[in-house]
Amino acid sequence: MPIRPVDIKKTDLQKLPNGMNAVGYVPGLNLYVRGPSSKQWIFRHTCKVCRTKHKVSIGIFPQDSLDDAVTNAYAARSKVGQGVCLKGEKYKEQKRIEVDAQQAITFSEALDEFWPSIQKGLSDRKAYQWKSTLDYYVVPKIGNERIVDLKTKKILEVLTQKGEAADKKQMDNFWLDRTKVAQDVRQRMEKIISMAIAYHELDVANPAAKANGLGELLPKQNRAVLHHKSLAWESAPAFWQLFKNKNTQSQKVLKILALTGKRVSEVTEMTWGELDLESGLWTIPWQRLLKKQVQEDHREPLSDLAIEILRSQPRDGDFVFQSGNRTPLSDTAIRKQHRRWWKGEKVDTHGFRGTIRTFFYDNDQLGFSKEHVEVMLTHGQSKLDAAYQRGDGYRRRKKMMQVWADYMAGKLELP
């Protein structure tokens, strides 16, 4: 005799065939069998809201016993009688769980999640600065805080913290004592939090944005600008005489910096693929330039002296100037060489840019325009200039860099 639903006992549940099997006890209670180890309690009913037939899972067999299934089926039947859509209720519960999971994201988790996409647009040096400042100043303070729980007061505490800075010096107020770094950290916090809010659809304001009240609470910073100390152009020939016969990796980098006026990272990360020494051209990819608004590579003309130095380098790696482990030389190594040998006025390696700029500004009788100097320094153009000035004055700049090299080498007498 076939088993009827009302006759099903606990011991008979294992005998049911694959498919939907009515169990009895409560109208609509079924055991759906998909295999020996896959059985699910299903409540079948007609929804009064949707006016369609629904099947809703109310448990797993054997984890949920027959008694549990009967209890759950009675509860489900009662809800249906009250006009509740069980499928809609289940969907809302799933969405609530998803929202709770999204809102549970902490600052550290957001940083790990979005860092790969942020890193793509940064040079290796900039990426290190970006991440290391957040790891040092921010993560220990708010790393475990949920984004939705972060308030302006907490961000203020991060930016005005007291203690040891990354350079091991003591600070009384991060925002006032490390002005530039603190500004960068605030902007980086704002970006991470903003990305988390947008991606995870969090219904909160960004507490790291100045416009949301933080700007009113931060103490006023000393806005004095400290320029890089540059070598007086009158001292450039003496500098060249001191270094022209010194040929370590760091010393050669110093000479290229002095001849080209480029940024330290642009020279230390120079690759052989960027150079065409036959035509004296160095093409710097836009990704390595400080100004990335215009995504165009920069063409840098090389003087005869610069070409001679570059030709003397061995081609035993991707980078023209590299350390023993075939990575770019560090800024520290370059600065040490500079301080060790140059005993004149105090200057830094970035200051060569100011030296060249001042030389051509003070000696306008040489016939080179301000625009050519600014392009040489890879400074951004104004919106008006960018709209109408499409050329880069390469030929004129090539003559300009040769004039500068001749002056440094003592081959040019100024009128």
Summarize the structure.
By secondary structure, the protein is of the alpha+beta class. The chain has helices at residues 66-81, 86-103, 107-119, 124-142, 152-159, 174-177, 179-199, 214-217, 236-243, 249-260, 264-268, 304-311, 331-341, 352-362, 370-376, 383-388, 394-408; strands at residues 19-22, 29-35, 38-46, 53-61, 163-164, 170-171, 275-276, 281-284, 298-301. It has three domains: 19-88, Double Stranded RNA Binding Domain (2-Layer Sandwich); 107-217, DNA polymerase, domain 1 (Orthogonal Bundle), CATH 1.10.150; 233-409, hpI Integrase, Chain A (Orthogonal Bundle).
Q: Could you explain the architecture of this structure?
A:
Helix content is 45%, strand content 10%. Helix 4 packs across helix 5. The radius of gyration is 35 Å and the shape is elongated. The strands form three sheets. A four-stranded antiparallel beta sheet has the order 1-2-3-4, covered by helices on one side. It contains 17 helices and nine strands. The chain has three domains: 70 residues, Integrase, DNA-binding domain (Double Stranded RNA Binding Domain); 111 residues, DNA polymerase, domain 1 (Orthogonal Bundle); 177 residues, Intergrase catalytic core (hpI Integrase, Chain A). Strand 7 and strand 8 form a beta hairpin. The longest helix is centred in the middle third of the chain and has 21 residues. It is an alpha+beta fold and 415 residues long. 26% of the residues are buried.
